[in-house]
Amino acid sequence: MAKQDNDNGSSKRAATNSAGSTRDRGLMPPAKPSKIAKRDIIKAIREVRAMRPVRSA
Amino acid sequence: MPKIDYPRNVFINCPFDDDYLPIFRAIVFTVIDCGYIPRCALELEDSTLVRIEKITRIISECKYGIHDISRTESDRKTNLPRFNMPLELGIFLGARRFGDKEQTKKACLILDRDRYRYQSFISDIAGQDIQSHDNSDLEAINVVRNWLRNVSARSTISGGKEIQRRYALFKSELPILCEKLKLGVDEMIFNDYTHLVYEWLR
Hints:
The complex is a heterodimer. Chain A is mostly helical. In chain A, about 25% of the residues lie in helices and about 0% in strands. Chain A has one helix at about 40-50. Chain B has a single domain (about 5-200), classed as Rossmann fold, CATH 3.40.50.2300. In chain B, about 45% of the residues lie in helices and about 10% in strands. Chain B has helices at about 20-35, 50-60, 85-100, 135-150, 160-180, 190-200, and strands at about 10-15, 35-40, 65-70, 105-110, 130. In chain B, helix 1 packs parallel to helix 4, helix 1 (about 20-35) packs across helix 6 (about 190-200) and helix 4 (about 135-150) crosses helix 5 (about 160-180). The longest helix of chain B is centred in the last third of the chain and has 21 residues, at about 160-180. Chain B is globular and about 45 Å long. The interface between A and B is large, with 39 and 48 residues.
């Protein structure tokens, strides 16, 4: 078995995310830039999130 | 240029054809969801680099490797096997065996469609971590998630079912996301896909 490392790390976040999870999972940004502007990606994600059906209590 | 984060980089060595795309996208999603950085030959567009040079450079920057040899099979036209994936697996294992101290810490997962199929064409890899994804994107998520959970000390990796749930939701929203971004779902390049997944998961 491979030796375990201690690579818990950066990009700490705790707010509710697009996937509906509030857990801080230490996501890492991709290695290379995208051809799509970040603001366009975020805008599209917000719009799609707003289209999700609201769960009843 | 950003510093290479060797312990968080995962080299993905797999087919890039349309048939494999569902499994490839599921693996990339899982790697990001688990807090790692997916790397593969598709990330580089520099045509001045010889392909093997690109691949060896990326391999040297990755502590982890996921190698899918499920498409190592005879081509209908040539009757010869596609051997790029086993070649890149060999380079990865060679780096681990002969590389410097950092390189010797490499760990890899080998995927195939059947767990013991490798014995009939590449039996020397016996003893490595070889798993089957059964040609299923959901099973690929489970296998990759469990392997990353095992080889790292990260405590923030979600359960397989939770990642599958998130991936199903992401997949269902992907066509609308692409429409808003004026992209076809199948024409998204690797670097766009990784950014979309990363921002969606944040």
